[in-house]
């Protein structure tokens, strides 16, 4: 053990005011955006320390507080591990305990950016349309009083406080895996603001900034075994470290209120005018195959993506998804070669040091499928291109969402629509498919009304039942 290592986890945080408030302080942000911001400050200065906000539970705050908000980020390479201590957090707040403290932090003049990783479901929007779901219980709550629960509620009420105090709005920097994520969050914020105060909505629309971003780094959930391994490696017991792969990418539209942002360009962030082609590439090539491998791999008995990638039947399947079903529907972003991107993804999936559970990726399928898989299927079908692999992945999601695996074992389905989805399973695959295709918040109209798609999905579901997941994958 090196002398002094444990002390690094008893950091004394800076008392300088934060420049960023981050909503949704999960492992992903701590292993991605927070590290980029820390590096940008180290490279070029600026007061960009971060106040993290947990929107649900106090766990992360309670673990990080005794460490002065410092934590270890452990990079898991195929050939070894590298650790660094990240000290960019200045404070952590827990929204349900004190929503006013969160609003006060967001309304502080020093704060120029509010970034978010609140997962797809955190925007309270309808995945198939991108509009605010005004009937969402948290939105109903947020309309009824000034202390919000939802992420859109916090954004609108904090912007309202800034407007009243004559302070410029903050830039809203969405870092979730949604297509045109800046536009989505702008849309829900304006929809909600209009319901509260139309003048506020006009001000936000005119003065605010909602750059879209593409974020990428594989960050599996930290396990108890990780905590022990890290302690053996460093001699320090970190209560809340994060685990991540070496690869990282962040593409950001350079549109910030007053041009105020950390010097992200100095640390490898790609600042672009239009992030859309990068988002499509990443959401469809990475997340689309991640979800496909998660449902099919889980049903085949594979616990992690690395295990799936090591199975030659699945390796060939994912290669086919990229080359024949996904890439043909994409426009390459400037400077990217999609074939090389696919090869790099295959290597990232195969990294044996990353234990990314299929079950973790399978979560929240109803919120993820539209942008990851269903858009590619709809465009492929409209262009007369066969998409049997992605169709099989949708069938696997339906089986997964039924709550019972192909082996008859119960599945713990985590999804905001889990209860509804569980009622859709029938003995007759055609009836199951018909029930799922009525889900207007998940399936775009083009697929709901496509009898050919219903027939292909029914055949895929039948193949899964008859041949098992691995057998059906082998026969695509
Ligand atoms: C994964 C993503 O859990 C999931 O749904 O597909 O978290 C994925 O690992 C990241 O988007 C990679 O950047």
UniProtKB/TrEMBL annotation:
Record-annotated Mannitol dehydrogenase N-terminal domain positions: 19-260
Domain of life: Bacteria
Keyword Nucleus: no
PANTHER family documented for this protein: MANNITOL DEHYDROGENASE 2-RELATED (PTHR43362:SF1), MANNITOL DEHYDROGENASE DSF1-RELATED (PTHR43362)
Pfam families: Mannitol_dh, Mannitol_dh_C
Presence of keyword Oxidoreductase: yes
SUPFAM superfamilies xrefs: 6-phosphogluconate dehydrogenase C-terminal domain-like, NAD(P)-binding Rossmann-fold domains
UniProt KW keywords: Oxidoreductase
Record's protein name: Mannitol dehydrogenase family protein
InterPro entries with a match to the protein in the record: 6-PGluconate_DH-like_C_sf (IPR008927), 6PGD_dom2 (IPR013328), Mannitol_DH (IPR000669), Mannitol_DH/Oxidoreductase (IPR050988), Mannitol_DH_C (IPR013118), Mannitol_DH_N (IPR013131), NAD(P)-bd_dom_sf (IPR036291)
Domain (Mannitol dehydrogenase C-terminal): residue spans on this chain: 274-464
Entry GO MF terms: oxidoreductase activity, acting on the CH-OH group of donors, NAD or NADP as acceptor
């Amino acid at each position: 053990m090196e002398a002094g290592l444990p002390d690094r986890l008893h950091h004394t945080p800076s008392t300088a005011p934060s420049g960023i408030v981050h909503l949704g302080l999960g492992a992903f942000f701590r292993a991605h955006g927070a590290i980029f911001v820390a590096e940008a400050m180290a490279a070029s200065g600026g007061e960009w320390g971060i106040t993290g906000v947990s929107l649900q539970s106090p766990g992360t705050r309670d673990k990080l507080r005794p460490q002065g908000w410092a934590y270890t980020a452990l990079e898991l390479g195929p050939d070894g591990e590298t650790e660094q201590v990240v000290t960019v957090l200045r404070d952590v707040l827990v929204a349900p305990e004190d929503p006013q403290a969160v609003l006060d932090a967001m309304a502080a003049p020093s704060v120029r950016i509010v970034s978010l990783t609140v997962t797809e479901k955190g925007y309270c929007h309808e995945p198939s349309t991108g509009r605010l779901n005004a009937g969402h219980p948290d939105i109903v709550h947020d309309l009824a009083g000034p202390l919000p629960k939802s992420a859109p509620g916090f954004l609108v009420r904090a912007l309202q406080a800034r407007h009243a105090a004559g302070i410029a709005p903050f830039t809203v920097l969405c870092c979730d895996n949604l297509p045109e994520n800046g536009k989505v969050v702008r849309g829900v914020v304006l929809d909600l603001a209009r319901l509260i105060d139309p003048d506020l909505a006009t001000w936000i629309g005119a003065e605010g900034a909602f750059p879209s971003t593409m974020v990428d780094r594989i960050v599996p959930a930290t396990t108890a075994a990780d905590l022990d391994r890290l302690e053996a490696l460093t001699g320090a017991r970190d209560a809340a470290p994060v685990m991540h792969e070496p690869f990282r990418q962040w593409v950001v539209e350079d549109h910030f209120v007053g041009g105020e942002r950390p010097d992200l360009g100095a640390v490898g962030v790609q600042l672009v005018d239009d992030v859309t082609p990068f988002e499509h590439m990443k959401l469809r090539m990475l997340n689309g195959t991640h979800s496909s491998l998660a449902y099919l791999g889980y049903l085949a008995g594979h616990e992690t993506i690395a295990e799936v990638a090591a199975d030659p039947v699945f390796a060939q399947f994912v290669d086919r998804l990229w080359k024949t079903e996904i890439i043909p529907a994409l426009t390459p972003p400037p400077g990217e070669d999609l074939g090389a991107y696919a090869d790099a993804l295959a290597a990232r999936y195969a990294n044996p040091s990353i234990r990314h559970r299929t079950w973790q990726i399978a979560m929240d399928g109803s919120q993820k499928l539209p942008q990851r898989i269903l858009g590619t299927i709809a465009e492929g079908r409209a262009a007369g291109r066969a998409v049997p692999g992605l169709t099989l992945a949708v069938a696997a999601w339906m089986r997964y969402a039924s709550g019972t695996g192909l082996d008859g074992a119960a599945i713990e389905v985590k999804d905001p629509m889990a209860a509804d989805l569980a009622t859709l399973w029938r003995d007759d695959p055609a009836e199951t498919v018909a029930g799922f295709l009525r889900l207007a918040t998940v399936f775009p109209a083009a697929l709901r009304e496509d009898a050919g798609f219903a027939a292909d999905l029914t055949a895929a579901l039948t193949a899964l039942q008859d041949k098992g997941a691995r057998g059906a994958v082998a026969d695509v």
